[in-house]
Specification:
This protein is mostly helical and about 240 residues long. The chain contains twelve helices and two strands; from the N terminus they run αααααααββααααα. The chain has a two-stranded antiparallel ribbon with strand order 1-2. A hairpin with a 4-residue loop joins strand 1 (about 130) and strand 2.
Length: about 240
């Protein structure tokens, strides 16, 4: 019934966001999901994505269902098409980092795959090379180093390799520094997945995520934790 009412709102209706906030808060108080019902998040996020409201789409789809990564990746790609071609990684990260920060590697991988697939088919000016090994396949973008970084970051998380993560962080540090807004997210990812401790002087990104996902501050902020990922089969690495 709530979703029927939500879908009946006209596009850009100013009271829609308030209704969504109250709907999510209600579901978090009566259901088993402290941050709100995933299906409600998915539908709300999908509607915001269709209406070209990427910030609102992100905050809901990050907490949605197994179908949400496709919606979020498509939203970010459409947003990217309005920008310069070399900014692809900035938009891809907006579909990947939120899932990693809530411990959802599967959805992060799915979002990355969908975004890069759209990039390959929709932007012929961006060259791509397929690289295969015994354990994984990767798309390498010679002129988009940060997009390569995101793909390798997901591989490092899957393998649970702190050494690989540290190598990536060092190798791509100049590129990450140019972005200027990834540091907090990467620090949290380093702690969650690789046990790399960061100073406990406040976590701006998690404060933001906590506020964003709490919809008014009613829900507790997520605490960083070590996320265990099943080890992949051994592979030869050049």
């Amino acid at each position: 019934k709530l979703l029927t009412i939500l879908r009946a709102f006209p596009r850009r209706e100013p009271t829609k966001k308030r209704f969504v906030t109250e709907m999510i808060n209600w579901s978090s108080s009566v259901g088993e999901h402290p941050l709100g019902d995933p299906e409600l998040h998915h539908v709300a996020g999908s509607i915001f994505a269709e209406e070209c409201e990427p910030y609102d789409a992100e905050r809901h789809l990050a907490l949605g269902t197994k179908d949400s990564p496709e919606q979020l990746a498509k939203c970010e790609y459409e947003w990217y098409t309005q920008d310069d071609s070399h900014t692809a990684a900035l938009y891809a990260a907006r579909a990947i980092f939120p899932y990693l920060l809530v411990g959802n590697l599967r959805s992060a991988n799915k979002a990355h795959l969908i975004f890069t697939s759209r990039l390959n088919s929709g932007n012929k000016s961006v060259s791509v090379q397929e690289v295969s090994s015994k354990s994984s396949d990767m798309r390498v973008y010679p002129v988009l180093p940060l997009l390569n970084f995101l793909g390798l970051l997901l591989l490092a998380v899957q393998r649970g390799s702190s050494d690989l993560y540290k190598q990536l962080a060092k190798h791509y540090a100049p590129h990450v520094k140019e972005v200027g807004v990834w540091d907090d997210a990467l620090n949290q990812i380093g702690e969650m997945y690789f046990g790399i401790r960061i100073p406990r002087q406040g976590n701006p990104l998690f404060d933001m995520m906590g506020s964003m996902m709490g919809f008014g501050g009613g829900s507790p902020k997520p605490k960083p934790k070590k996320v265990e990922v099943a080890p992949p089969p051994p592979a030869d690495v050049d």
